[in-house]
Amino acid sequence: MDLVSKKWIFNVLLSMCFIGAACTSVEKKIYVHLNNTVPCVRLLNATHQIGCQSSLSGDVGVLHVLESEENLDFVLRTGLHPPYMVILEHRLFTRSIMMKLNNGSSRVAGVAVVAPDANPAEGFSPHNTCPNENTGVYSETYDPALAHCSTTVWNPLGNGLSYEEFDFPIFSLKDDNKTRFIRQCYFDHNRMVNGSSPQYPLCAMQLFSHMSAVTNTATCMRRNDLNLGITPEYVCDPLGDFNVWATTRPLNNTAKGHKMSESVVIAATRLDSRSFFFNIAPGAQSAASGFVTLLAAAHALRNITQEAPPNRTILYAFFQGETFDYIGSSRMVYDMENGQFLVDLDNIHSVLEVGQVGMRANSRLWLHSDPVSRRNGSIDEEVKTLVENIRSAVMTLNVSASEPNVSQPLPPSSFQRFLRSRPIPGVVIADHESSFSNRFYESMYDNAEYMRVSYPQNMTQEEQLQFVTDTAKALTEVATVLARALYKQAGGDQSQLSGINADPQIVTQMLYSFLIQSNNSWLQQIVPSDLAGHLKNTATNFYVGVMLQSSEPTHLVQHLLANLTGNVVNVTQQDCQNQRMEESDTVSKHTYTYTWVQGAVPPNATEREGYCVRSTVHLSKAVSPAFDLREFTSTDYSTWTESRWKTIKGRIFLVASHELEMVTLGVGVGVLLTSLLLTYVISSKADILFSSQREPTNATY
Ligand SMILES: *[C@@H]1O[C@H](CO)[C@@H](O)[C@H](O)[C@H]1NC(C)=O
Ligand SMILES: *[C@@H]1O[C@H](CO)[C@@H](O)[C@H](O)[C@H]1NC(C)=O
Ligand SMILES: *[C@@H]1O[C@H](CO)[C@@H](O)[C@H](O)[C@H]1NC(C)=O
Ligand SMILES: *[C@@H]1O[C@H](CO)[C@@H](O)[C@H](O)[C@H]1NC(C)=O
Ligand SMILES: *[C@@H]1O[C@H](CO)[C@@H](O)[C@H](O)[C@H]1NC(C)=O
Ligand SMILES: *[C@@H]1O[C@H](CO)[C@@H](O)[C@H](O)[C@H]1NC(C)=O
Ligand SMILES: *[C@@H]1O[C@H](CO)[C@@H](O)[C@H](O)[C@H]1NC(C)=O
Ligand SMILES: *[C@@H]1O[C@H](CO)[C@@H](O)[C@H](O)[C@H]1NC(C)=O
Ligand SMILES: *[C@@H]1O[C@H](CO)[C@@H](O)[C@H](O)[C@H]1NC(C)=O
Ligand SMILES: *[C@@H]1O[C@H](CO)[C@@H](O)[C@H](O)[C@H]1NC(C)=O
Ligand SMILES: *[C@@H]1O[C@H](CO)[C@@H](O)[C@H](O)[C@H]1NC(C)=O
Ligand SMILES: *[C@@H]1O[C@H](CO)[C@@H](O)[C@H](O)[C@H]1NC(C)=O
After folding, report:
1. Protein residue with least CA distance to atom 5, ligand 11
2. What is the pLDDT of residue 364?
3. Is the domain of 206 the same as that of 325?
4. So what's the pLDDT on residue 233?
5. Measuring from atom 3 of ligand 12, which residue has the nearest CA?
6. pLDDT at 701 over 50
7. Contact (CB, 8 A) for 233 and 244
8. Backbone dihedral region of 274: left (phi > 0), alpha (psi from -120 to 50 degrees) or beta?
9. Which domain holds residue 598?
């Protein structure tokens, strides 16, 4: 039998396999499924769609391993077997190459980026240079000179790839076994040898990442509304999650809105991050450095705020979805304006926000404030007092705190959303004077390695969890400064400040939990049993996810904050879970949250000994008001939605040739027609074939 007829039979067999499930073993020999693939997905806002997608049946292309930018000419012009599935080393995942591929997308079936084992030496940020440019406070009307990052470009390394739209699927592959297999397949079958074109069969790859939503948020929300069926098929979901907050003083959370004679200092930070790819958002410096510091500060303040309470209340606020036009903070401000939150804007005394603080140069912190609201004399006085309070907290520590140039605006921060509503005194603490010191902002490399969270060799997981890294020591200093400054700002006594100290042990455990793995003996103790099963052996993904599906980081921070600021109370599991405290205690219902956590296994025992934690920790919706107001083209509020999808997968196989593919297709179509005919015959004779009654034909769902 000659080669061609062998292939012909092979193809007929292959196409039969698509129809019958009988020969799955044949399929396994032909395909290599790719595990560890991470797609880029489609997101939509009021006006645009961004991200990637494949066609419904997946995009197929002949593998081409790109060796350099010059080599693009092969893909875009000279190669004889388009479309190509381009394999890129990460160093070639640049704006220039990606935009050229996008422009020639008719010859590009998709792109697979091989993620390196170690971070690149040079910086990389797929985010834009001016994060949340249009939804912060610096609009043309607030101060034209400060709008659009015209004085300071915060993220100069940003290449904006995360905000482009691509006409083909883009996946990230781990540099593992399978990736070597892909390269081998390419070298064996597809590479030009001595200048002559490769011959069939060629190695090909197919990527599936079809996205249901198109155009923009208004369009996909309209499609969602049309879905009135019994099993509605939504096409997109608003991005969102929950904010986590707690107060140092128990306040009645059932009575929303203004609280008489209550003065609140807000200690804010953000909880989320993103990267180009869907579920890799390690956010070490961009999110974790700040919220770990705030958690440690809240812990340092637990005893003193119970024993010598300052006369103002400190509200710890961890905002979700800030990456996507300030979802969490804009929602809290909206709720405050509408009497739907614990307190209202009139209750706010000042705001102290923790930004990125993990990479201090010369132990220096920078205190950013808003030059526009400071033009008002009384706000300026308050900001000066706040800066003084932070400075006085620094005194004995190896930390210095300076203010940047007075005309510089605030970096991207949740505080901007409060200022958008009214002038409020506030400061954002960060490790950068002007543009970010983070060289991997909102990228997959903003990870433990970049934060220098690493351990001596041969340490067990348990030893690593306890090992105090230099990064943990540095963040502990910042947490101590923050805690003291908050206490002073809340009206606490200066003489108490030296007794307020953050605990490096707690900081190092938190860094391990978020940046290395959340599945560890410490977190197992402090979470409820239903969450324990969700703890992961990998770094936490800080991508916000979709509305009201609270994500792992939200719950971890919720329970950590409860453990670090709350108290253990002696009640039974049942009473704890029912929030049913002593009958007389009407206060507790309205102010506290009770959580039954797993606890530790006592020595010589086999069962964990759970206990009840009482805290002021609460969750509040972090969903953009645009979706409650149904203003899907809002310019005030975030309108980001995430498309839904059905299949995300990749596989590689050999393709025979175009002619043979046509034969395959022909057989496929033939079978399809046969089955259509069969279906027609069966359904037209159904009343004969099946005795049961049929639905009336005009029934609609
Ligand atoms: C890879 O994926 C295949 C099919 O989805 C699965 O059977 C296999 O266990 C996976 N392998 C690994 C190492 O995850
Ligand atoms: C896009 O491709 C066209 C030809 O296909 C070329 O003329 C044009 O310059 C390209 N644009 C960019 C931005 O590369
Ligand atoms: C939507 O996103 C695109 C891409 O980032 C941006 O250019 C556009 O300004 C955004 N639209 C709104 C209304 O924010
Ligand atoms: C690839 O991985 C498999 C199991 O996952 C292993 O058995 C095999 O030795 C690996 N091959 C190479 C070349 O590393
Ligand atoms: C390619 O050329 C080299 C020398 O020019 C020769 O040794 C080699 O055999 C050639 N390879 C093939 C596959 O023709
Ligand atoms: C807080 O007080 C408790 C007992 O009241 C004590 O055991 C604990 O060490 C104190 N914590 C700090 C950080 O001072
Ligand atoms: C807090 O106490 C200070 C004096 O210690 C007083 O000036 C201030 O008005 C008090 N603030 C509130 C909100 O009670
Ligand atoms: C780590 O442990 C292995 C075997 O247990 C030993 O051979 C090696 O020398 C150790 N390395 C270090 C740095 O201690
Ligand atoms: C916090 O967790 C530790 C265990 O890591 C436990 O000993 C302590 O009692 C917990 N405290 C609260 C208030 O939950
Ligand atoms: C907890 O309460 C039970 C019954 O109310 C009591 O027997 C026990 O001693 C208490 N435990 C502690 C540590 O107070
Ligand atoms: C808390 O507020 C609710 C609603 O206004 C009220 O019914 C309740 O009595 C209050 N509880 C306390 C302890 O003040
Ligand atoms: C645990 O068991 C060992 C041996 O059975 C015993 O020596 C030890 O005292 C026990 N410890 C506790 C805390 O009961």
Report:
1. 255
2. 94
3. no
4. 83
5. 604
6. no
7. no
8. beta
9. 567-615
